[in-house]
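Render this sequence as a predicted structure.
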Amino acid sequence: MGRTGRLYNFKMEGNTESLRIVSECGELMNRDELRDYGDLMYLTEKKKYSVCKDGRIKESKIGKERVEAVPQKDGIVKPVTFDEYLNLFIPLESDKVSEETFFRYDYKEPGCSYQKELEYSYRKAFLPDSIDCDCMPRNSIWSPKYRLESEKYITVFFENFCDYPKGPSPFFTDRVIATYSKDGRLIDIRDIARYGDYWEPQIDDSSTLSSITVRQGFIDEKTLNQPVKSVKVVVSRHGVMPDGKIHSETVETYQTTDRWDEKKNQIVF
């Protein structure tokens, strides 16, 4: 009569006395829609079932197949304000930028990074759709971290985790900065570093908002499981300008190998 589950949209009504049942069963037309927040489109057909006197079940089709749109509850955009959005970020006391700027340790358990996901309504209102171009939207998890307010604009810091990339690469985590006008208009947004099996970033501790130095390591896939990995390093500098625009430039590119630093407890190159 029908199937249930996210791939199917099933409805049924009937009468147990007359042993007549009418069912509507829709099958999802595009499975990629499960990775997005839009309506789910089902190709639906309606059928009638009745039990004959000899016990056989008679099936007959009612009308033609039709396309039915079913909204996803967590994809409904609710009204949100810019002040509510900013309150999701912790204020910074200085313009110093480091790896710690993209983490939060205010969780109930000491030392546990705070990974609260930004609700879809905030993403839709204050982030451009194009920023998720490498990842399926529903699998792109935006975690608000800190904010820094200046006289003309506001800078916010995110961690963006993607566990379902659109391409063949494995999952990754991006360090992202964005700037807004005081009335909530997006000025600029930029991925400045990426972490994952194929990537290893290092943000200089001496960085400030106007000059963030990132050593982005791209690990050679052939050496991924070897004790010493071959790494291409691209050194870039990012800075928020007086108008809120984010300027980025490549400073240096070189080939090296990685090593484990016991004092820093991390990979360095």
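Summary. The radius of gyration is 26 Å. The chain is about 5% helix and 50% strand.
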